[in-house]
Amino acid sequence: MKYPYILFDLDGTLIDTNELILQSFEHTLELFFPGRFTRQDVLPYMGEPLVTQFSRWASAEQVPLLVDTYRKFNVENHDRLVTIFPNVLESITELKQQGCKMAVVTSKMRLTAMMGLRLFGLDRFMDTVITIEDTDKHKPDPAPLLLAMDQLEADPGRTLMVGDSPFDILGGQAAGTSTCGVAWSLRGPEGLAPYNPKYLIDDMRELLSILRR
């Protein structure tokens, strides 16, 4: 098998949290800055930690309040707005049956990361889950990917990082893994191609073909 170790981003890769994220931002920004921001202001920065994102628009004193407001809305509306992308569950199931060791590497908090994984039964396939609480630095820094590989006892040269964001691709490259972008990203394939992922897939089932090459 070409890649017996696979690291997945969560939001926008395995589960579709795009609407939840955008509504959480819209709710929060409208509450604190009425009429100033739309989802178009948020889109370029999706995938970054919340503190980093809110620091673009708010003072250091305001940021903790914005983060708390965002997270409250996000948790309360999670199950209503989150869906799973097509063919993800089937593909993950087959990868596990083939003996792949898999991890999620996300910039989310553990609470909401596990909510999303459990909602669709994906948690049982993951050998480890790395969240924002687990490292001081976050994607695109390689630290969370290196921690995941350490826990999987993975060789970077036989590991594939799969994600929807430039931060996933850059993080994988910095960690020494191969990288795979997903074309169902909100940014689309044109938003990932400039970062030179080794693979760019249109359907999660294509991962199975990559592993057989």
Automatic annotation (TrEMBL):
InterPro entries tied to this protein: HAD-like_hydrolase_sf (IPR050155), HAD-like_sf (IPR036412), HAD-SF_hydro_IA (IPR006439), HAD_2 (IPR041492), HAD_sf (IPR023214), PGP-like_dom2 (IPR023198)
Coiled coil: none
Gene Ontology molecular-function annotations: phosphoglycolate phosphatase activity
Gene Ontology biological-process annotations: DNA repair
SUPFAM superfamilies: HAD-like
UniProt GO cellular component terms: cytosol
PANTHER family linked to this entry: PHOSPHOGLYCOLATE PHOSPHATASE, PYROPHOSPHATASE PPAX
NCBIfam families referenced in this protein's UniProt entry, alphabetically: HAD-SF-IA-v1, HAD-SF-IA-v3, PRK13288.1
Protein name: Pyrophosphatase
Lineage of producing organism: Bacteria, Bacillati, Bacillota, Bacilli, Bacillales
